[in-house]
Write a sequence for this structure.
C-alpha cells in the first residue's frame, strides 16, 4: 500500500498451539499480505515451537524462556522489527493469537491508517461466536474510575451506524492495533512493569499525551475467541485464591499493577479519587463473584 512500505505483525504466544496455528493460517489468506509476521514464542512446551518450524517457515520466530509475558514478548517482537527497519514509513501491528483475522482485515486496517496518519488505529474486535462488539471504544471517568464501553454487545452493523468509519477512544487494546514506526520509535517500549495487563492501555495513553490520535476503525473487523483470552487467576475457589488474585500478574485486578497503571495514566488532580473508587469497585466486584460462587 502506498505510504506504508512495510507492515510487520507481532504476535506473542505461549502454549496455545492450535490457536496460534489458526491465527497464522488466517494471516496467510490476507488480501494485503503483511511484510512479515513475527511470532514471539515465550517458552512454549506444547509443541508450538515444532509446529512453527514445520508449518510456517515464512514466520520469523523470536524465542523467550517463559518469563516475558505479554508485555515482554510484544516488546521483544517490536525490538526485532525496529532493528531491521531503516525508515519510519511502515507500521507494526500488535496482534494476539486468539483472533482469526478475516481476509480483508489487514487491508481495511491499513486503509484506515492511511486516512489517519497521525493516529494509532485499533480494530473493531468482535466475539468470534456471536459477531458482537467486545472492543469498540473504551472510555473512563477519571474522577470515579468508571470505565465504559457503550458500543459493547452491539452488532457490527449497529456499531457502524452509530460511529461511522471511525470512533475515538480513551484507550486502545493490544489486539489488532496499528502503530506507525515513527510512533513506536518515539514512544519507546510497552511498560515492563505492567507485564500482562494494562500495558496496552498505558501505551495508548502515552501516545495520546504525545499528540497521537487514538481511533478504532469500524471497517477492520477482527474476531476474537474471548474464552481463550488472557491468563486468568481463579479467585472463586477459596479465600486464599481470592487474596492471591489481588497480587498475581495473572489477574487483571492485581493491586500492584492497577496502582502502577493509575499512576501512569490518571491526571494528577483526579488521582486520589480514582484510586479510592477503583479499589472499592475492584474489591467489591471480586467479593460479589466469590460469594456468588459459594452461595
Amino acid at each position: 500500500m502506498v505510504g506504508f512500505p512495510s507492515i510487520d505483525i507481532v504476535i506473542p504466544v505461549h502454549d496455545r498451539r492450535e490457536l496460534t496455528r489458526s491465527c497464522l493460517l488466517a494471516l496467510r489468506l490476507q488480501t494485503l499480505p503483511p511484510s512479515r509476521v513475527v511470532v514471539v514464542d515465550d517458552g512454549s512446551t506444547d509443541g508450538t515451537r515444532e509446529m512453527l518450524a514445520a508449518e510456517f517457515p515464512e514466520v520469523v520466530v523470536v524465542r523467550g524462556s517463559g518469563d516475558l509475558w505479554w508485555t515482554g514478548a510484544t516488546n521483544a517482537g517490536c525490538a526485532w522489527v525496529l532493528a531491521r527497519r531503516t525508515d519510519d514509513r511502515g507500521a507494526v501491528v500488535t496482534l494476539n493469537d486468539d483472533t482469526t483475522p478475516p481476509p480483508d482485515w489487514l487491508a481495511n486496517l491499513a486503509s484506515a491508517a492511511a486516512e489517519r496518519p497521525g493516529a494509532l488505529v485499533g480494530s473493531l474486535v468482535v466475539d468470534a461466536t456471536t459477531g458482537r462488539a467486545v472492543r469498540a471504544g473504551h472510555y473512563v471517568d477519571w474522577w470515579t474510575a468508571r470505565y465504559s464501553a457503550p458500543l459493547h454487545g452491539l452488532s457490527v452493523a449497529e456499531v457502524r451506524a452509530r460511529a461511522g468509519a471511525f470512533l475515538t477512544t480513551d484507550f486502545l487494546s493490544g489486539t489488532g492495533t496499528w502503530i506507525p514506526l515513527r510512533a513506536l520509535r518515539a514512544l519507546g517500549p510497552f511498560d515492563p512493569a505492567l507485564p500482562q495487563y494494562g500495558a496496552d492501555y498505558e501505551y495508548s495513553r502515552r501516545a495520546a499525551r504525545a499528540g497521537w490520535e487514538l481511533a478504532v476503525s469500524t471497517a477492520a473487523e477482527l474476531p476474537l475467541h474471548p474464552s481463550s483470552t488472557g491468563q486468568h487467576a481463579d479467585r472463586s475457589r477459596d479465600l486464599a485464591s481470592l487474596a492471591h488474585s489481588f497480587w498475581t500478574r495473572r489477574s487483571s485486578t492485581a493491586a500492584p499493577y492497577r496502582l502502577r497503571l493509575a499512576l501512569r495514566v490518571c491526571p494528577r488532580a483526579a488521582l486520589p479519587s480514582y484510586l479510592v473508587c477503583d479499589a472499592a469497585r475492584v474489591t467489591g466486584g471480586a467479593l460479589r463473584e466469590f460469594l456468588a460462587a459459594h452461595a
